[in-house]
Specification:
This protein is of the alpha/beta class and about 325 residues long. It contains 11 helices and 14 strands. The longest helix is centred in the N-terminal third of the chain and has 18 residues.
């Protein structure tokens, strides 16, 4: 992976969240200047260690407010809009906030940006919804989001790619430790239950999806920055190609690390998240991007992390 790139002024909205708390330090370590705009809705302090760095700046504000975003955007070479309401439960609780943050704030960015400014956008491969059995979803597959979260991110992607000077990363379900931890993501959640309860009840355990470690997500953004001209104008799936797993297969993998972990299929009941698909990541891999952290590595990391974490303040719900 080509990590060499000139120093840029990068604006990151939502930079104090789960992804941003890993991506922002990585960008700073590469010599970039990073400005974060975040509303700190979860009272997170994940960026505290960065405040001594002269290349870091941070503002509390709302990415939907033109008066707040425009002056910060004017100084930026690159924009990474991470600000979003993430996941079906949170989005279901605040439909207006979801649409205005996940879609409308991104549309506003595309209208304010010049053609010289670069945009790197994370969306979600949950936009594929329910895939065809046994058939990998690639970037040409039809998008069929089945949640407001998926719909808002797909619509944001359409605006970003129409803008032209942009890359969209369709992220698999992310896992791994972050300074702003989230326990509600599937792998993070299942490992937490395995560590704390040694048991889980599965609903619709045959549903499959793809997974990716948070450090590999950060590396995808670095890769996109370094190879922007050859990658721009396109969407890319970003996931572990050997981790298209059902929920039951994920539990079997976790059980290899925690043999006392017990999981059972519920005979009745439904999973409110109906996503079920497998994904091809061949397109981004063809650009030279390679994942570095396996699902097994991430499970081991989470087991250590959960020896320290024993509360639910790390959810986003």
């Amino acid at each position: 992976m080509n990590n060499t790139t000139e120093s840029k002024n990068i604006l990151v909205t939502g930079g104090a969240g789960y992804l941003g708390s890993v991506i922002v330090p990585k960008l700073l370590s590469l010599g970039h200047k990073v400005t974060v705009l975040d509303n700190f809705m979860f009272n997170q302090d994940s960026l505290n260690p960065l405040c001594l760095n002269p290349n870091f700046d941070v503002y509390r504000g709302d990415c939907r407010d033109k008066a707040e975003i425009a002056p910060l955007l004017a100084k930026a070479d690159v924009v990474i809009p991470l600000a979003a309401l993430v996941g079906a439960p949170l989005c279901g609780r605040d439909a207006l906030g979801t649409t205005s943050t996940n879609r409308d704030a991104v549309v506003l960015l595309t209208k304010l940006m010049s053609q010289d400014q670069q945009l790197l956008m994370p969306i979600t491969n949950s936009g594929y919804g329910i895939g065809e059995a046994g058939k990998h979803c690639d970037e040409t597959s039809p998008l069929n989001p089945i949640s407001l979260y998926g719909t808002s991110k797909v619509e944001a992607e359409q605006a970003v790619l129409a803008q032209g000077n942009a890359i969209s990363f369709r992220l698999a379900t992310v896992f791994g430790m972050s300074p702003r931890m989230r326990l509600d993501l599937l792998v993070n959640d299942f490992v937490y239950r395995a560590v704390k309860d040694s048991a889980i009840v599965l609903f619709e355990s045959h549903f499959k999806r793809n997974f990716i470690h948070i450090q590999d997500v950060a590396n995808a953004f670095v890769h996109g920055l370094a190879n922007f001209d050859s990658m721009k104008g396109e969407a890319y799936n970003v996931g572990l190609s050997d981790a298209n797993l059902s929920k039951k297969q994920l539990c079997e993998k976790i059980q290899q690390h925690l043999p006392k972990f017990v999981f059972i299929d519920a005979p009745i009941g439904e999973d409110p998240d109906k996503r079920d698909y497998i994904v091809s990541n061949a397109k981004i891999e063809a650009t030279g991007y390679k994942t570095q952290i396996s699902l097994d590595d991430g499970i081991e990391e989470l087991i250590k992390g959960y020896r320290m974490i024993s509360n639910t303040k790390y959810s986003n719900v």
